[in-house]
C-alpha cells in the first residue's frame, strides 16, 4: 500500500479498494438466495447454462451466451448483458476444471402467472470443481426411459428452468452401472438423453433427432454442426439397432459412446463393440478441440 504526505492511501489504492468492494458486492449478489416470490422459483420462469471452465477460461462461451439470450427473448424476460455474464466468471477459482452454472430468472412480482409490467430479472452464478469421467468416455450402458416427453414448440430447444420431465426420467433407475437414459416422445421418436444430446452413425452419416418440438439444443451439438454434418431426423429406436455407433454428448462431459442399450425392464435392446471406429475418432478429436482439451 502507498500513502500520500498526510499518511492516507493514494488514489490508486483507494480505486483498487473500491473495485474490490464492488467485486465483493457482485459476488454476494450472484450467490444470494432467491426470494420466495421469485418467478423462477415459483413457476420455472427462466433459463440456465452449465459451462465448462478450463483454467479460468470458459469453453464454448459464445454458444452458451447465445442460447441463454435466445431463451430469455423467447420467454419475454430481459437477458443479462455480455458484461454481466462475463462478470460471473469471478465466482470461479481459475484453476483446473470447473463447471460454471448461470441462472436467469424472471424476477419477483406479478399477480399469479401475470408478469409484472417492469420485471427485474435476476442473475445467479456458482462454480463447482469438475473431473472428466474417463471411464464413460470409453463407453457406457444406457437405458430407454418409460417417460415420454411432451411436445411444446414454444419451449423446444431452450434450456429453461422447468426440467421436471428430466428429473422424473432420471428417477427411473438407481443402478450405478447405467449412465444415461434415452427419451422418446409420445410417437416413439428419439429426442435426447436425460442430460445430453443423442447422435448415431450409419451408412457414412451422422444423424441426430429433430428438436423443433421438444428437447434441448445443446451448445456442443450446435458447435459441432458448424464443423461436421449431422442430419436431423424423426426416427425411433429401430434406427439405433442398425447404427454402427451411438453416442450421447454435452458441453461439459464431452462424448460418451453407447456400448449397451437396455429396455426399461433391463433386457438388452442393442450392443455395440468396443473397438476403434474412424467416425467416432473424428468426432472425439473435434470435440476435444472445441472443449479446449490439450493435444495428446
Your description of this structure?
The structure is a single chain. By secondary structure, the chain is of the alpha+beta class. 29% of the residues lie in helices and 28% in strands. It has helices spanning 11-31, 39-43, 61-75, 82-87, 134-138, 164-170, 219-227, 238-241, 278-290, and strands spanning 46-54, 57-58, 97-105, 122-129, 140-149, 178-185, 190-193, 197-202, 205-209, 230-233, 245-250, 254-262, 268-271. Strands 5, 6, 7, 8, 9, 10, 11, 12 and 13 form a nine-stranded mixed β-sheet that branches. Strand 5 (140-149), helix 6 (164-170) and strand 6 form a beta-alpha-beta unit. It is globular, with a radius of gyration of 22 Å. Mean pLDDT is 92; it is low at 1-12 and 18-22.
Summarize the structure.
The chain has 296 residues and is α+β, with helices and mostly antiparallel strands.
How is the quaternary structure best described? single chain
Strand content: 25-35%
Measured distance between first and last alpha carbons? 45 Å
Q: What is the average per-residue confidence, as pLDDT, rounded to a whole number?
A: 92
Order of helices and strands: HHEEHHEEHEHEEEEHEHEEEH
Task: Give the low-confidence spans.
Answer: 1-12, 18-22
Radius of gyration based on Cα positions? 22 Å
Helix content: 25-40%
Number of contiguous helices:
9
Strand count: 13
Largest sheet: 9 strands, mixed
Overall 3D shape: globular
Helix/strand/pairing class, anyone? Answer: alpha+beta
